[in-house]
Amino acid sequence: MSRRFPILSALIALIGAAFFIVPLIATFNFSLRMKRGELSFEAYRSVFDSDVFLGVLGFSATASLMAILMGVLIVVPTAYWVRLRVPRARPVIEFLSLMPLIIPPVVLVFGYVRLYGSSSILPLTMTEAGTNVLLVIGYVVLSVPYMYRAVDNGMAAIDIATLTEAAESLGASRLRTIVFVIFPNIRSAIMSGAFLTFSISLGEFVITSLLNRPAFGPYLVQMGQDFAYQPAALAIMAFAFTWICMVLMEAFATRKPGQRLLPWRAPRSVTKAKS
């Protein structure tokens, strides 16, 4: 007996998809009408011809990559240590990792300015380099809930205790174990968190604007105030870039962890024992 086609479920799915797709199509169609009476990519050409666009995109990409690097260096050892040594503290660490979702970014950035302003011991906001460092720190804080969840789930899929014991039995230090054993086995989880971090940081507006940094988020808002068609083109490009990140994240997330346990050659006795 053949199953009946789920008409109601399909209808709900179509309505939900139309809720997102129809505005996107309308925005794309509007972005093509910069030239009166014809469809063209003039708005996109205008955006790419702007030196300001290339500058803010490069600045945001650099800051986002720095945030990814800093986040990985902080989150991976923390999640590893909590799972290996203090598993009872996991609920506390998970709660702390969710704090950036609770605290509004405007409160966060005003706290940064207050702590690292001209009257503090470490006045980061007094120089451009210091303000950029503060911006990267803000990106890292905003991405912690996503990076920590991705890394923690990746570690849950492997036996880190056994991997650690195997590495230490071959003479590896704890740092070498994290770098050459744990990192390769959770690389798909790290990439997932990295793509999420990049997507969040690239379009962030509040912290970037209040710190007066030339990034993509404030640039998009400013373009929306001054022009009509270019902001629509920027919105479509940002949407496409986000979806590319999501597709790459899914591709890395569905890959199996690395099969190679250790990057160095095991002793001959160990190899014979395995065979």
UniProtKB/TrEMBL annotation:
Ranges where the ABC transmembrane type-1 domain occurs: 53-249
GO annotation, biological process: transmembrane transport
One Pfam family hit: BPD_transp_1
PROSITE patterns named among the record's database cross-references: ABC_TM1
TM segment ranges: 7-32, 52-80, 92-117, 129-148, 189-211, 231-253
Cell compartments where the protein resides: Cell inner membrane; Cell membrane
Entry keywords, A to Z: Cell inner membrane, Cell membrane, Membrane, Transmembrane, Transmembrane helix, Transport
Chief location: membrane
InterPro entries named in the record: MetI-like, MetI-like_sf
Cellular component GO terms, alphabetical: plasma membrane
Record's bilayer topology term: Multi-pass membrane protein
Record family assignment: Belongs to the binding-protein-dependent transport system permease family.
Name assigned to this protein: ABC transporter
Originating organism: Celeribacter baekdonensis B30
Lineage of producing organism: Bacteria, Pseudomonadati, Pseudomonadota, Alphaproteobacteria, Rhodobacterales
